[in-house]
Design a protein that fits this description.
Length: 166
């Protein structure tokens, strides 16, 4: 067999193997009020603050749903061993559509009453975030800024508890 024929055969085999597995990495579907937050156990009833992680494990694609961004970020720290990279999805405060959190803009305002007191709402554009910030004074931030705003510091050692208050 000529080298080009071997290469073509190998490419077909790789494509066949890759196409044989269905990997639905899209955001989950759910009915508000019918699913519990994986982190805190509360019903996810207010779509405006719902979020989800989508990741692969050896057992398949996982799509846990959360009622507030702080639950999601906390859970993301504790993904199971062997989990692939996770995509974080958030609901747009206005449209309720899923957004990739890496592309979203977030309003952090103490006046935003969220299920677990993160005080954070996600929006699909900076303009929409600025409009919401006018109603709820606070700051417009990106995903990278959220952990410092809504989570306690991560434990520095496996034996250290996340909440070190007496």
């Amino acid at each position: 067999m000529r080298p080009t024929a071997r290469l073509a055969t190998a490419a077909v085999v790789v494509l066949a193997i890759g196409c044989g597995r269905s990997r639905d990495l899209s955001p989950p579907t759910f009915n508000p009020g019918s699913v519990e937050c994986v982190a805190c156990g509360m019903l996810v009833s207010d779509e405006r603050f719902a979020s989800a992680l989508v990741f692969e494990t050896p057992d398949g694609v996982q799509k846990p749903i959360f009622d507030d961004i702080n639950c999601t970020l906390r859970h993301q720290r504790e993904l199971p061993a062997g989990a692939g990279p996770a995509t974080l999805y958030v609901r747009d405060f206005d449209s309720r559509a899923w957004l990739d959190a890496r592309e979203a803009f977030f309003v952090h305002s103490e006046r935003l009453e969220t299920p677990m007191a993160s005080h954070v709402a996600a929006l699909g554009s900076r303009e929409a975030a600025e409009r919401l910030r006018e109603r709820y004074p606070g700051s417009v931030v990106r995903l990278a800024d959220l952990p410092a705003l809504v989570l306690p510091p991560a434990p520095s050692s496996p034996n250290e508890k996340e909440d070190s208050t007496p």
